[in-house]
């Protein structure tokens, strides 16, 4: 099968998530990167493109021009990955979708609700598709958790708790990765947007339950920081389930510690990113089962990926699975688990509602269906 | 050294916590149980007493009579352990303290705030002392955590999270242990009182910070249950620290899973009851250290107990340490870490405030200093 | 029930294992220590006895005299605990058994095979019984492992691996606990005797299979140490099973890390002392089950002890269970799991054979049935 | 940088390790697969090649022809990956090296010592280089372990233990992956060759110590199996260190559980494949440090790879790192950690010596330096 021709917006020299997207695209051999607007600085754009093997005539400094030029080429890109800071997502998403080019975008969708709502109205040309890379939904055991809940094995879901804990913003910091993340204009939120949205998406992804309302409390523990570095959110989910989310970037000793626990009337599930190949499953009154990727037990088929059990897959493989499933979709298959525009809109609304609730002393605010 | 003569109120045949107190009293050889009002049913009181070697003339069916009779004997009990259901604590506490007999009482102090406040006014005869058995504060690594925070190694505490998760009330249940715990009149609260108070006490014990206000959300997930079986509480602590507590009795797969994480400006700490001999300590920017009971590292002396490292101590030893430290106190020593009446009053006020806050949609309510 | 009157030989001030035996005896209330020859130094014997509440007239400096005197008293001890260094076990064991007093002895049975074989010929007066405190066989989940193997759930046992790793003898040392353990005359062996015997006993206890032959390799890594500080042993067990044992006292970072894995034709089991309340059980082709003390799953009844699941029991409880089961035996019950003289003889023969095999470059030597 | 043109021998439809090599080659973008002799069956070779995008004129059924043809093309492959069963390694290795084409070969090097010794005499044309893919030496924390030992932080190494436990051959099996592995002619050994060689290589890789002699015991627990499915090996390493290795394919419940522990005079190290991002490091007398990939602590720079800490990398990334480091070598850099022909020869000699030792009841046999 021929690889899909891929472009990239953002991800020039020094970027973190751009190279991750490139590995993810390459991992299973379904994409080839042939064009890019890797930086808005022409010299840096050209140098970055050369470094990753993009031909000079397809190294752009302006994504709008790239969208026009590539759409016009017979060998133009079929899809584009957008890996710019959050406030620079909306423009290229619209431009490429309207040019009939499929879009893969890093989360969150946008920095503001208005942008996200406008995007929801975009009419893509030529049925162009959209993927929001909520990485954790690409983990095999997260998908198996979703399958187990969907199978009814948990009974009715009662209680969900998801955490996403980091410590890299414990001190005031001026590194490049931190700089835009703590600037409200560029990021659209602090911990709640950067990592809280992952916990939020994961809760819905695993349980299949729509969130209905939230109450949030955001803190900025580092003096002078303009955005939150710690967020506690309570969620009412459909079916009278209740969820708590905790995102923190000042939890000293936690690296990138996402976890989720789901408790139902009949069984419980626990998954933790630091041991991503394991899912603890406990039917009430029976021993806890340590389910493993590619290993036996309920819904095993939901977690069959590249390697036999005991050969650890991790973050890049989860990311690569999103790309690979999207490739299958683009080739006419179906991929019901992939996050799209509505997930993105829900995430941005979640961030905005959390900020407003926190300012109102934790008032309960409704979350509109996306 | 001669053992302290101990009596017991409650803890007759079929009880859970009574036998635990007896083992704890016996463990280090500092107490001898010589009298008891183990049941209000005379026949059961007598049979229960005989079973544990109490002489028939000191087996009472009425604690008030026991307090009078023992206070009058030259060889009367010096201390009494009260292990009745929560709503039957206040009476014997007052009676024994006023009789000049030291009191050891299971938590929570009482089932109502009014009872607890009244107890706070009691004038014990002969300087009788009071111990509230908040078991977890007897764990060596919990005490070491407290010592590390007190040493300043964490800097300023910012964020605390404590969980106490069980699953035994997942289904409607009619067992004896469950029956009074889900009866508001006997228990004074559900999960928030039975186990949430442990998480609450632990947060204050480890951080040394007084709680100032709370916002709570209590759920009764099992239909028809008159008390909460899941409680989420947010706490404002002095010094601008923020804590979240989660107590649940419907978390399928969790046995008795208490944990606490404390994050400061300079370091973080994590302790979990399922691995009680370990404390994870991470100075910001340095590797996580796995501190162990009786092992090297900061504040090692706070966790020196009976056995060398690697010989696991557990719940009974933690409980026994409270008894042993109290014996030292009764013999004229000091034991600054022991929970007393003010901790008990604080706990009962916490439960009451949590219930009121939850009824008011999570409104913030002040917590008076005890 | 009246407590059993207990004496103690050894265990004076500064001892490690003596206090452990005393706690174990006290834990469940089945014993009362009323006599002791705690030291061969009269002044220290008296002071040590006073400290633990033994009446002066029953504080002996000579165990032989104690055996005679106690046997002659109408209120004399019914049982004695022997907690001296290894080379001082045989004398008192014989004396007390022949005086009709039950004996509880710390392991290993003796320092030499000749002593152990002689003891096997002793005819106890009045059917006096003998208990060797192989502590680890008192752990609930070790007993559950034994029950699961006995139930046939593993099929035929093929492969066993047991480790006992410590690090406290990493450096040359002159502390009291170390001194006699590294003296061949007092200890009868180094790591292989002090802890290797535990791994050896555990292998037989869990599998129920008799060892038939061994090949061993002992090392003394610390220059000048006269006994081994690291022992690797291969064992042929009956039924064509094969076991490897590894005992080390120079494994830096391991505290007291005993573990056992048993693999059969149908399932596997793993237990580790650092998490003693858990047993991993994997039927071939099915998920691993995390069995817990007092929790559900196969052979649950073999691990019902004092506390509900999630309230950790540990070393003292395991030790106490041996004492409690022995009390039941003395009162006429049955306790099929308790280690006795034949286990002790097997252990001493194991140590001797290991030393001879190692000197013969790992030659295979038969292990006589005890 | 232009990708290196890569060919592949073996790895057609249904293969396990072939696709792994392809992902590893692709991961960091340093290789492009342009030719292959993926099967000796012409139709399957052609179909397999088409599936992975190899042009029909470069899809060969005969590796000898491929070596000749590719060496003759101006755009011929620069390197080749050999992923055939073990007994089919030697021929293509020689052919490609002599054609001046770099060789990447799956381990073990060959099925016999004679083949391996012959290969050691091959004179590659044009300085062609050789990589043996001992995957585990590509794990960041394994490399960090090696660096820590090399730094002297462990002092003198005394004791090493490495395990590689699987359970997939618990029952007699006829699957394709199993079939050739249990055929002595194709595999050259059973568990000892398939996975024991990994443990053997890892021991030398981490400690930097050459093995001098071994004593081995191989078992075939499954009746009728012509090769071992369980291997226990003792090794004498230079400097008076002692190692034990255990490889098993009948350890029910173990997936692919490689681990290594190294104990020196000053510190200890433990690494386990099931948690590959963690290395436990204990300086004697200090707390255990939980070192993490890309995290702080000793020799951190040895484990800097693609992602920040807490974003798990795994098996494919370790494999990819070997490919990437080899690419750096081919481009003129240095990669001192990469396994080569001498490691391969040592491994094959290890397997042969283990078989002979086991037949001689565990006799000690010297291991020649490779």
Question: Could you walk me through the main structural features you see in this protein, from its secondary elements to its overall organization?
Answer:
The structure is a homotetramer of 370-residue chains. Chain A has 370 residues and is of the alpha/beta class. The first copy, chain A, has two domains: 4-128, NAD(P)-binding Rossmann-like Domain (Rossmann fold, 3-Layer(aba) Sandwich); 139-308 and 341-359, 2-Layer Sandwich (Dihydrodipicolinate Reductase, domain 2). The first copy, chain A, contains eleven helices and 14 strands. In chain A, the strands form two sheets. In chain A, strands 13-12-11-10-6-9-8-7-14 form a nine-stranded mixed sheet. In chain A, helix 5 (113-120) packs antiparallel against helix 11 and helix 6 (140-150) packs across helix 9 (191-207). The longest helix of chain A is centred in the C-terminal third of the chain and has 19 residues, at 341-359. Chain A starts with a strand and ends with a strand. The interface between A and B is large, with 40 and 40 residues. Strand 13 (288-292) of chain B pairs antiparallel with strand 13 (288-292) of chain D, so a sheet runs across the interface.
């Amino acid at each position: 099968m021929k690889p899909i021709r891929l472009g990239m917006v953002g991800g020039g020299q020094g970027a973190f998530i751009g190279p991750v997207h490139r590995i993810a695209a390459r991992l299973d051999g379904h994409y080839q990167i042939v064009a890019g607007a890797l930086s808005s600085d022409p010299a840096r754009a050209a140098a970055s493109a050369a470094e990753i093997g993009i031909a000079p005539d397809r190294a752009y400094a302006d994504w709008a021009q790239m969208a026009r030029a590539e759409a016009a080429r017979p060998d133009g890109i079929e899809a584009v990955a957008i890996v710019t800071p959050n406030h620079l997502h909306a423009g290229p998403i619209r431009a490429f979708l309207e040019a009939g080019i499929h879009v893969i975008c890093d989360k969150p969708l946008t920095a503001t609700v208005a942008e996200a709502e406008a995007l929801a109205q975009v009419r893509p040309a030529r049925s162009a598709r959209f993927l929001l890379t909520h990485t954790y939904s690409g983990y095999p055991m997260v998908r198996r958790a979703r399958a187990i809940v969907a199978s009814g094995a948990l009974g009715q879901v009662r209680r969900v708790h998801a955490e996403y804990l980091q410590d890299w913003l414990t001190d005031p910091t001026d590194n490049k990765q931190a700089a835009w993340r703590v600037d409200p204009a560029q990021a659209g939120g602090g911990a709640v947007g950067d990592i809280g949205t992952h916990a939020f998406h994961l809760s819905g992804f695993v349980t299949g339950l729509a969130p209905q309302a939230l109450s949030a409390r955001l803190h900025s523990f580092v003096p002078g920081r303009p955005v939150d570095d710690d967020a506690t959110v309570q969620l009412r989910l459909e079916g009278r389930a209740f969820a708590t989310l905790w995102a923190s970037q000042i939890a000293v000793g936690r690296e990138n510690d996402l976890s989720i626990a789901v408790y139902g009337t009949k069984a419980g599930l626990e998954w933790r990113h630091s041991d991503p190949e394991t899912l603890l499953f406990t039917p009430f009154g029976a021993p806890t089962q340590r389910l493993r990727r590619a290993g036996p037990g309920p819904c095993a088929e939901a977690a069959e990926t590249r390697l036999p059990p005991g050969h650890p897959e991790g973050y890049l493989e989860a990311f690569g699975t999103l790309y690979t499933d999207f490739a299958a979709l683009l080739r006419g298959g179906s991929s019901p688990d992939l996050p799209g525009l509505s997930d993105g809109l829900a995430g941005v609304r979640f961030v905005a509602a959390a900020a407003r609730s926190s300012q109102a002393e934790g008032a309960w605010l409704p979350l509109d269906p996306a």
